[in-house]
Amino acid sequence: MSTEKTRYHHGHLAESLLEAVDEIASQFGIEAVTLRACAKRVGVSPSSAFRHYVDKRALLTAFATRALNQLVDAMEGAKQQVQHHGGNAFHAVGLAYVAFAIAKPAFFRAMWREETIYAQDGDYLAATRKLAQCIQGGFAQTLRDEDPDAFSAQELLAWSSVHGLASLLVDGPLAKGKSRDELLEAASGMIQALDIALDQPV
Amino acid sequence: MSTEKTRYHHGHLAESLLEAVDEIASQFGIEAVTLRACAKRVGVSPSSAFRHYVDKRALLTAFATRALNQLVDAMEGAKQQVQHHGGNAFHAVGLAYVAFAIAKPAFFRAMWREETIYAQDGDYLAATRKLAQCIQGGFAQTLRDEDPDAFSAQELLAWSSVHGLASLLVDGPLAKGKSRDELLEAASGMIQALDIALDQPV
DNA sequence: GAGACGATGTTAACGCCGTTCACATGCAAT
DNA sequence: ATTGCATGTGAACGGCGTTAACATCGTCTC
Questions:
Q1: Alpha-carbon gap: B31 to the closest alpha carbon of chain A (Å)
Q2: Which of A171, A180, B143, B201 is most buried, most CB within 10 Å of its CB?
Q3: Is residue A156 a contact partner of residue A142, using CB atoms and an 8 Å limit?
Q4: DSSP for residue B92
Q5: What is the pLDDT of residues A120-140, one digit of tens each?
């Protein structure tokens, strides 16, 4: 380890590059993420990135996976919060989904960019599956042994509405001139309407 | 007018470039859309595009606007179809939304890319507003004189769920290995559940 | 008709991008 | 100590968006 002197071998370049993507995306948006910019921020030559990621798309895939896992963590945190202090778990989890998108729009965009990531990557797929299970978690009626990719109409409605609201707030016209709290309140209202709806028989 | 000989002045370059974006996006995805590729397809030098669009982002904004209007047309067509032949108008309009996204994923992506278009452009904003009204159209209870940007919790739920399903099918893991008809059937089921939900009191 | 002028298209160049390849460096096993 | 391998470097490639100086042409005026 020794000091932080400039060493020829960086040591943790793969993760440091991910961190650079994080910072640049947070500051300037996902479109501004450039291999050269990431390398410069880490203090390394541009070509060194290719020792750890086969191309830019692979780096963005790793970042998307990271972001997905962060989202899952946020949702599970919200669920535990509610389990300890009481409240509607489904509402809390859904709100956490939207809140994450509002707080980290660039991350949310990066997660769902089929054209700029390798969407069939194993780790990425596993992360999306974990997210799906996290959302399905509120549904006792789901048959657990069936195909994990199968969704009931109500599960589909739950994920779609929360995901759609997040998307419309991040990339759509809904957020125009509204504060974070106003957006969260609108989201809370929608999730409440959804919650009522999901109690209805099909 | 005369013949279709190679003339120095193209004549309809602005629209022809839009058409080129359409074709390239359809064939190779929105990420493959390049000013130089569009210019080459039209048979014109790359820099000529800048006589009609201040930059690439402006061209993509015009394309997004066009795509939005196409979506609105599809939805209104579906509505009229139902009005003449009977059926659930809300269901038909929602399904048209999802069907458009499945049929033209690149267009759907282009519509909602805040970072690559000028989302505050007048024409683009007008198109999004028309789309919003098209979706709100099914809701008699909406107070028409109020802020057109205001959405009730139920309207929010309606747009979000349909938009979210479309997004998840286009950029998410839901569509994995499913045929177009299977996807449309799943969408139909979700919209049905949504329709029931929207009849419930808040 | 002649000439001026503005709109539209061209050519050449700039810097930045992702990517590759030959090469340099240093760690670890022998 | 030597070898071998993983990791980082530097220079170069073609493609990108964009600009500026220049070419062409339709149209408006006399």
A1: 7
A2: A171
A3: no
A4: H
A5: 999 999 999 999 999 887 654
Distance CA A169, CA A171 (A): 6
Structural domains of chain A ordered from first start: 8-52 (1.10.10), 60-198 (1.10.357.10)
For the stretch B78-126, pLDDT in tens is 999 999 999 999 999 999 999 999 999 999 999 999 999 999 999 999 9
Q: Return the CA Rg of chain A.
A: 19
Q: Please give the Cα distance from B133 to B156 (Å, whole number).
A: 12
Residue A93, both tokens: 């989890």
C-alpha distance from residue B158 to each of A175, B70, B77, B88, B97 (Å): 17, 20, 19, 14, 12
Question: A9 CA to C28 C1', in Å?
Answer: 15
The minimum CA-CA distance between B3 and chain A, rounded to whole Å, is: 40
Three-state SS letters, A92-132: HHHHHHHHHHHHCHHHHHHHCCCCCCCCCCHHHHHHHHHHH
Which residue blocks in chain B are alpha helix, DSSP H? 13-28, 35-42, 56-85, 89-103, 105-111, 122-136, 153-171, 180-198
Amino acid (one-letter) located at A136 = Q
Closest CA to the C1' of C20: that residue is A47
